[in-house]
Amino acid sequence: MTSPVLEVSRIRKVFGGVVALEEVSFAVAAGEMVALIGPNGAGKSTCFNVVNGQLRPDEGHVALHGRAITGLPARKIWRLGVGRTFQVAATFASMTVMENVQMALLSRRRRLLSLWPRATRLYRGEALELLERVGAADLADRPCGQLAYGDVKRIELAIALANEPALLLMDEPTAGMAPGERAELMALTAAIAREGRIAVLFTEHDMDVVFGHADRVLVLDRGHLIAAGEADTVRNDPRVREVYLGPETLAADEAEADAPGWAAC
Ligand SMILES: Nc1ncnc2c1ncn2[C@@H]1O[C@H](COP(=O)(O)OP(=O)(O)OP(=O)(O)O)[C@@H](O)[C@H]1O
Q1: 6-10 long-range CB contacts below 8 Å, 24 or more apart?
Q2: Which segments of the chain belong to CATH 3.40.50.300?
Q3: Pocket of ligand 1, candidates 13, 14, 45: which has the most ligand atoms within 8 Å of its Cβ, to mutate?
Q4: Which residue from 34, 149, 151, 169 has the highest number of Cβ atoms inside 10 Å of its Cβ?
Q5: For residue 179, what pLDDT band results from cuts at 50, 70 and 90?
């Protein structure tokens, strides 16, 4: 791997008696789509929160382009180029799509929101470019509250891109979407990541999305990274299959010549 955008080294995070992350290390390169998967409670959200500064790890280091960011405030890490999208897409429903993206650009440039009445003329060109990148320029003048959910997710992506992220953390990007829309959003994200050399780390429960769109897959189980590698290698890893399918199902599954892909886990 060329010098990574994100490097996570030997992270440990404990909540009371619960070890949420233990000795977790991995890296994500520019333009790479990496899925972070694992059963409920595996430590995925904790890992995201440590990377973006919402949580300080008990041990270990996080570096962005080789610069230590461990324990910096979340806002500072965001300014350094770590963006995040959430499971439930967050936009301002009463504002238009264009205004939502302009607002994100305004925030990036640290312009005062009290200038908003005049700001509606600011950054229109840039906002439109971002909307073109996510294929939503035709929605520019529609209030976000009137959009179909799949469209809101694309607008959320445009808002995240307004921050010019080097690293984008995506929390369950396709949650709540129809299967066809999921593939479309992930293909779009992968194309944008490659073109813009953006490192993308995403969590996802839909295994079709994971194995269809991730360049590499990281698997957490009870705070430990139990597998990391290309999709096919990870999919066939016995430990991973056991964690997802359980030992009994695994034995039955292995008896079949063509093991099916896993459904949503
Ligand atoms: N703020 C907290 N206080 C106490 N325990 C926590 C806290 N946050 C997470 N945990 C615990 O840490 C472990 C990892 O949780 P985390 O939310 O990171 O898992 P996850 O893989 O994101 O799960 P899910 O897929 O259900 O969202 C769990 O046992 C959880 O109960």
Answers
A1: 6/51, 6/62, 6/63, 6/64, 6/167, 6/199, 6/201, 7/61, 7/62, 7/63, 7/66, 8/47, 8/50, 8/51, 8/60, 8/61, 8/62, 9/60, 9/61, 9/62, 9/63, 10/59, 10/60, 10/61
A2: 1-81+166-265
A3: 45
A4: 169
A5: confident
Torsion sign over Cα 91, 97, 99, 103? positive
Q: Name the DSSP letter for residue 56.
A: -
Q: Which pLDDT tens digit goes with each residue over 128-143? A: 999 999 999 999 999 9
Read off the tokens for 124: 């229109």
DSSP, res 143: B
Would the CB of 49 count as within 6 Å of ligand 1? no
Ligand 1 binding pocket includes 20 (Cβ within 6 Å): yes
Q: What ipTM is given for this predicted complex?
A: 0.97
Domain at 1-81+166-265, CATH from 3.40.50.300, 3.40.50.150, 2.40.50.140, 2.60.120.10: 3.40.50.300
